[in-house]
Q: What sequence folds into this?
């Protein structure tokens, strides 16, 4: 493969076990209607969606050697360059309980492999081989046990210093560390938290739309290029220093929602690589998430389908408070 346009980094990948139930009844013995497994973890899903959008992509991360086959099959099938390290043991299996005809998904995400700083160093060395100005670098997901909370912040600093465009999609302390400590020049290009994640990372109460816009504006003033805040069925806020819009799909698809946010991240990256403006970025990203949902359980997006859906995405302009 020639130099990829994007690289995704997944420090805590997962095999997703989707268990379908009629209804979720906590505390009761239940029989599942069915169960399927798929390779996942945030950056892995982003790589799968980017491949569908026609973006050449490498997947970097840390896989347990004992069950790496499912990931290797995905990479081979989708033409994703495999840059993942292999370590002894098994990649975690996350349980997704899909109930009520797909209207409700309960995620039980396990801690993952126990890693050490040496693993982070190895990831940084591999990333260094790919880094170049304009490369899209997606840093995505939780941190496995054993890695410090500033792991994403360190990778972000490394990639930004090389002139890459960093999209950071994480939560809690790792998000706070990457945003709070980054000087203007080391801020990521983009983030995609949900309202609660942004609230936790900034320490601000983000009850209404104005509060959300003000929080996004503060980050943009500190050097962030694009703030996307997902708001579930209300859509997503897309904000740059040029303006802000709320994007909503014309209708939602039924079925498991697992990975739809990752497909939205892939849309943000594809839009960046195509040089799209705010409105078209919001359309493409929302359409990518919707295409992923419509393709469940295939875990893919089809570029033609995304293009068709993008035209039907509803945009509502927002005024800065
Ligand atoms: O890294 P986290 O936050 O535990 O999330 C991992 C989960 O998120 C997903 O990537 C969906 O966004 C799943 O494939 C995976 O199980």
A:
């Amino acid at each position: 493969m020639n130099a990829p346009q994007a690289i995704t980094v997944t420090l805590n990948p997962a095999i997703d076990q989707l268990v379908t139930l009629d209804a979720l009844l906590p505390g009761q013995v239940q029989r599942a209607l069915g169960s399927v497994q798929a390779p996942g973890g945030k950056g892995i899903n982003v790589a799968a969606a980017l491949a569908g959008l026609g973006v050449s992509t490498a997947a970097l991360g840390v896989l347990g050697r004992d069950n790496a086959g499912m990931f290797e099959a995905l990479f081979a099938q989708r033409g994703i360059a495999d840059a993942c390290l292999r370590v002894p043991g098994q990649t975690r299996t996350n349980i997704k309980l899909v109930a009520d005809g797909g209207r409700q998904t309960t995620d039980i995400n396990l801690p993952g492999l126990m890693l050490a700083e040496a693993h982070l160093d190895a990831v940084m060395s591999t990333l260094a081989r790919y880094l170049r100005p304009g490369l899209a670098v997606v840093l995505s997901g939780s941190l496995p046990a054993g890695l410090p909370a500033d792991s994403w912040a360190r990778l972000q600093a490394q990639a930004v210093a090389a002139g890459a465009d960093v999209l950071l999609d994480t939560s809690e302390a790792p998000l706070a560390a990457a945003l709070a400590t980054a000087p203007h020049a080391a801020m990521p290009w983009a983030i995609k938290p949900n309202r609660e994640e942004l609230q936790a990372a900034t320490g601000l109460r983000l009850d209404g739309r104005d509060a959300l816009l003000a929080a996004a504006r503060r980050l943009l003033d500190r050097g962030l290029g694009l703030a996307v805040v997902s708001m579930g069925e209300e859509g997503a806020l897309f904000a740059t220093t040029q303006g802000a819009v709320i994007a909503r799909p014309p209708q939602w698809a039924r079925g498991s929602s697992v990975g739809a946010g990752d497909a939205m991240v892939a849309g943000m990256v594809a839009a960046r690589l195509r040089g799209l403006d705010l409105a078209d970025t919001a359309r493409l990203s929302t359409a990518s998430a919707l295409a992923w949902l419509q393709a469940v359980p295939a875990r893919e997006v089809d570029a033609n389908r995304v293009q068709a859906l993008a035209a039907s995405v509803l945009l509502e302009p927002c005024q800065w408070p």
